[in-house]
């Protein structure tokens, strides 16, 4: 199993530059459009999509599952990615402290992002006939918890005649960006804390 994991890891790393080259080639020559008329372009387009990108996706999923299930594999791979080094007892203690601080700050960031994703704030102007005591601006506060990405209207305004001034309904970035940012945060935060503790 260990040799199989190492082999797939090498294939995963080898396919990364191949994929980058393929996507650059795809972007420059508009291979999808060329594949409609040219047989060779169609073969290259299908091969790149299925053989290279498809296999890379499957290997990525497999390696992700192995990282969750195998302590030995996780220790070997993630230690290299995070530059984790425990050469003596002092570094072992500092690693534990840095990991604890990183975990707590990451949890704080997650709570903050959770609040931003659930809270809704809108300021809008209503027509003069709907104004109360001459005040035509309305502040609307809301809370929405979605457990799925089902398409819904996030508008808190019930009347189409209202004029939107300021509206905040959810995080302005995608979930992929949030996850990628948290991965980067974990690595940078841990290494910064270790570097500071070692001084």
Low-confidence stretches: 153-158
- The helix content is 55-70%
**Biggest β-sheet strands, sense, barrel:** 3 strands, antiparallel
- How far apart lie the N and C ends? 40 Å
Strand order of the largest sheet: 2-1-3
Summarize model confidence as the mean pLDDT. 78
Oligomeric composition of the shown chains:
single chain
Order of helices and strands: HHHHHEEEH
- Computed over alpha carbons, the radius of gyration is 25 Å
Shape: flat
Strand content: 5-15%
Number of extended strands: 3
* Tally of helical segments: 6
Computed structural class: mainly alpha
Keywords: Membrane, Transmembrane, Transmembrane helix
Transmembrane segments: 7-29, 44-65, 104-124, 173-193
Task: Summarize the SSE layout with pairings.
Elements: H1 2-29, H2 31-34, H3 39-69, H4 71-81, H5 89-118, E1 119-125, E2 137-143, E3 163-168, H6 175-198
Antiparallel strand pairs: 1-2, 1-3
Helix pairs in contact: 1-3, 3-4, 5-6
Describe this structure in words.
Keywords: Membrane, Transmembrane, Transmembrane helix. The chain crosses the membrane at residues 7-29, 44-65, 104-124, 173-193. With 199 residues, the chain is mainly α. Helix content is 64%, strand content 10%. It is built from 6 helices and 3 strands. It has helices at 2-29, 31-34, 39-69, 71-81, 89-118, 175-198, and strands spanning 119-125, 137-143, 163-168. A 3-stranded antiparallel β-sheet has the order 2-1-3. Helix 1 (2-29) runs antiparallel to helix 3 (39-69). The longest helix is centred in the N-terminal third of the chain and has 31 residues, at 39-69. The two termini are 40 Å apart.
